[in-house]
Write a structure and sequence with these properties.
The chain is built from eight helices and 49 strands. It is mainly β. It has three domains: 244 residues, lipopolysaccharide transport protein A fold; 217 residues, no CATH class; 123 residues, no CATH class. The protein has a 26-stranded antiparallel barrel. Strands 1, 2, 5, 6, 7, 8, 9, 10, 11, 12, 13, 14, 15 and 16 form a 14-stranded antiparallel beta sheet that branches. The chain has a two-stranded antiparallel sheet with strand order 3-4. A hairpin with a 2-residue loop joins β7 and β8. The radius of gyration is 36 Å and the shape is elongated.
Length: 794
Amino acid sequence: MPSHCSSLLRSRFRLARLAAVVALAASGVHAEPQNGDPSAAQIDWRLRSELPPDVAGRLPVFCDGGYLPGTVDADDARVPGIDMDGGAPLEASALNARYVLDTELYLQGDVRLRQGPFRATGSEARYNQQSGELRLQGPLVSRGDGFLLTGQGANYSTQSGQLDINTATFLLHQAELRGEASALSRVSDSRVLISDGMITTCGPGQNDWSIVASDIELDQAEGFGTARHVRLEVLDAPIFYWPYITFPIDDRRKTGFLYPQFGSSSAGSGAFLALPYYLNLAPDYDATLTPQYIHGRGLFTEVEGRYLSRYGESVLQLGYIDNDPAFEDEHPGEDGERWALDFSTRAALGGGWTGYGDYSVVSDEDYLSDLNRSLEIDQTTHLQRRGGVRYSGERQYFDAYLNGYQTIRDRIADKDKPYDQLPEVIYGGSLDAGWLEANLESQYTWFYRDNDDLTGLDKANGQRWRAIPELAVPMRALWGFSRPSVSLDYTRYELDDYTLGDESFDRTVPVFEWDNGLYFDRRSSLFDVPYNQTLEPRLYYAWADAESDQNHIPDFDTGIRSFRFDQLFRRDRFAGGDRVGDANQLTVALTSRFNDLLTGAERARVSIGQVRYFEDREVNLFGAGASGRSQSPLAGELVLNPIDNLQIRSSGLWDHETRKTEEGRSQLIFHSDDYRYLATLGHTYSRPDDLEQTDVGTVFPVTNQVSAIGRWVWDSELDRTVGTLAGLEYNNCCWSFQVVHQNYLTDDEELDTRLLFRIELKGLGGSGGASDNIADAIYGYDERERRKFGSPRR
């Protein structure tokens, strides 16, 4: 028989039979009246001044505030109750209550429901014990793990766990995605269905952009959302329509269209529009298809496929255009079909063994400058193809590979094209025998190139063996070191198409080296900062008895090393194995370091050194590399790190005989802690090469939202600008925009012009290629991009 309890002030009921609503506790519904019925985003939004200091400190400067998810106090969650049926107890209270035995519980007026972390308040609540339905009236909030829902009323099924809210708003904290809907259904802990909805990552009241759709499904378990009949709106004005889209709501991969890319160039590429499509084929492999239209050229397609095995990653990139009319006009008689391929693979085989491979090929020499956007190939004259296996152990190493090239500049003569190595095998090892150390470096190479149109020494192909066994006595102490050593540099040739004598011959060069160094240090302080200063003198003597005339040996892979400070401690001035330099020389060098004892950072390092030659150096590479000087130029290096964000590097050569600088390279790099301010200043000078260039780059904020970007490269010898980059960047907490105008010098010494854009909608990605070009030009910009939306909740 019904029993009524009315006009109860703060009446309480502990109902064991209501344990069936334990499923509701998992949804975390928390309904409470709010003046003005704030949205889900407004409930958890805080101005910068209201955020905890540690959270506000990580907030990007262009954001006025951020989300701070609410929590349920632990004491409030511990509500006493009766647990007769093994379920969690529910505590209910209201100004007025009526209970119909085994049928319905009706609460009215300041209704409060609690069960563990679950809390709900509202004007009315009805629970039907027969159907298991719970109805809540009044402004309500449903808070779960990483999301928040609000609405005017809700129905909850204790059987299916579905929660239906009308006139709803929602917030996903991790993705910072908010929205609203005429109706919202939470069908499980991770799936939300939205009818007539809107979503955006902009803050409350800031609808700079939004996606409006008739139906939206958010799947937190899979990490993506789907929407039908979609409009992209900017400032509430529709600008684009999709019948169906999918989009990420976290960092997981999902098949679907990526953002369009667009830009323009004056160097043949023209204006272009690309629509990348990503294919998440399996957990271990995927692909990206990028069809694009290029004005004046037509439809061009690029494809990238990636495969990740338990050994390593492989990447295949392709580019193809069936008919390029602009290329046909520039090269009469040429086919307009153009293509390119780039493949790379890396594999960790275990036990110190690794495998690797790189292969690149293009259809013509202009492909990289005209078409390439995604292939990881720099504009160059030779494309390398290399593959092999490598072993690296504690005391030995091994490398065996095949190596070849595609020369993509038709004007390069056959005699200047590089040799292929088919194969090259390298082995090195060391062994300690008490106070004696034994080392071995060895190499076998078979050199080959097409020699049909070559004559004389340029026509030679063949095999080369090289081995350098060494015995050394290393002596080390805290105050210094000494390492005398003797070695034998042996080379054996077996040649084909060689016309200067026997096709088989060898070369043996005895070598003696003695490297010595001392270490002095003292402690002091500067501006109340304790530091340690070192003084490190070093003497290095090298002697090599090499035959002066080695020009009967082909030049397979040899060049002359550029003289730098580190070259002071090399006994051979030649790189490669076809020349072994003669030597009888002594290097005197001095290095001093200043180390911060509080942080351990090296704040300054200065080094200077010079080589004294006791005999003329006669070995040359077809006339280059010999010298009768008795002393080398002074070589020096300077590195300053006065603060963590500033580095100054300078190196150079000064000839005391001519009292002129031979070479100089200087660079200043600065960035603020948050990388909003970037500055680089560089200067390069080479008197032998008639080269002198100055390079200035910067990114600095004009306001909290607007930053200026610039780079300028000036060539003093050409008396002209050889490169510029100028642009603007706008950021706020939900989108960013970049526009960049770039000039750069092409192979024909003409300035190419590019206009590049990038638009990024926070949480949904970006379009355009401006960022990559800026990162290539200005040090630290890629780190700045990574931190740009580095809000405390992501």
